Amino acid sequence: MPTPADRLPLADPQRLLAAYFVLVWGSGYVATRIALQDASPFSFLTIRFALATLVLIPVILWLRPRWPATRAEWLHVIVAGLLMHGFNLGGSHYAQFLGLSASMSSLILAFQPLVTACWLTARGLDRLTPLQWLGVAAGLIGVAGIVWRGLDLRTLSLAGLGCALIALVSISTATLYQRRFCPAADLRSAALIQTAATLALFAPLAVLVEGFEIRPSLRLLGATLYLVVFATLLAVSALHWLMRRGQATRVTSLLYLTPVVTLAVEWLFFDVWPDAISLVGAGAACLGVWLVTRSQLSAPAVGSAVRPDSRAAAEKRPPAPR
Fold first, then answer.
1. Residue-level pLDDT at 117
2. What's the pLDDT at 263?
3. Which class for 71: exposed (0-12), middle (13-18), buried (19 or more C-beta within 10 A)?
4. SS3 state at 39
5. What's the rounded Cα separation, in Å, for the pair 22 and 281?
6. Buried/exposed code over 269-288 (b: 16+ C-beta within 10 A; e: otherwise)
7. Neighbour count for residue 64 (Cβ, 10 Å)
8. What pLDDT was estimated at residue 307?
9. How crowded is residue 153: how many other Cβ atoms within 10 Å of its Cβ?
10. Are 252 and 113 in contact (CB under 8 A)?
11. How far apart, in Å, are the Cα atoms of 100 and each of 66, 111, 151, 211, 263?
């Protein structure tokens, strides 16, 4: 039977981190849209991760967290970071740069909880109840209702669709990869390694592909600082922390709430009023997340990922006598 720590959300820190992640991830779409008015995608991401790396260096020197102990652990941390930050953000940003509407991009990325659920179920690593599957479907339908006004098929190009699909596969793989291969990695040192690796990926692309297109402005500075501190450094760490302690499908289902937050931010700050279909979609998205996160968990599947504490205990256990 699952322990209370396996349920999301139950403990207060999990509730707070889940709420924080949803609020920042949802408002981050608006901040990104603002930033891309004054910078091309790779150039903006280069500035974002250069600043994130510079912020992290003194913090890490002060905290002195544990670093990866082996080459394999270093490689896994770097791969997870490039998937989460590099290919995910690079794909989604460049899809919009190529003309794909933000709404269409959001809808494609909203398939992540469904992709995660199908992958884990096929591998025998998660078992969802019928109500949880209903929640996954309801959440996806809800996101479609929220973004339906911006679904313009005329913006759909093969290149833009390909970039959005790269982003979907990357973020889906990144969350599971970090959970599977970096279960004991210190999230503080991992954050510095991953931002530096992502910077090394985007800096050459910004120069060679875009000629480093930047128009300095206060709105670009504000959006970048917001995304660096609250999204890149804190929200991603919160997501990985939640993934270590909760069922993967439950955690990724929180992404259904990000369009709801985006809808609220646009209404509060940009006077963009939602219509009836968007409001119904928001309700369906909230219902979907509630069904996925509140449904009774079935027994853990055989072969499910080993929890970090269980792995450590197994390593300390003396070998059985021959």
1. 81
2. 74
3. exposed
4. strand
5. 17
6. eeeeebeeebeebbebbbbb
7. 9
8. 43
9. 7
10. yes
11. 41, 17, 9, 22, 19
At residue 153, the pLDDT reads 63
> 36 Cβ partners below 8 Å, 6+ apart?
44, 93, 96, 97
For residue 231, give every residue at least 6 positions away whose Cβ sits within 8 Å of its Cβ, in sequence order, or none: 24, 25, 28, 31
pLDDT reported for residue 321: 42
Q: Give average pLDDT by consecutive 10-residue segment, the chain, 322 residues.
A: 48 74 82 88 95 95 94 96 94 83 72 80 75 85 78 70 90 88 90 96 94 93 93 87 74 76 74 78 83 56 40 43 41
Residue 162 to residue 30: CA distance in whole angstroms: 22
- As a whole number of angstroms, the distance between CA 124 and CA 117 comes to 10
Amino acid in the structure at residue 145: G
φ, ψ of residue 36 to 5 degrees: the values are -70, -5
pLDDT of residue 249: 66
Per-residue model confidence (pLDDT) at position 11: 47
Q: How many other β-carbons are positioned within 10 Å of the β-carbon of residue 115?
A: 16
User: What letter represents residue 114's amino acid?
Assistant: L
Provide the token pair at 191.
Answer: 């954050």
End-to-end CA distance of the chain: 31
For residue 253 the two structure tokens come to: 């289902």
Alpha-carbon gap, residue 314 to 130, rounded angstroms: 34
Residues 39 and 215 sit within 8 Å (Cβ to Cβ): yes
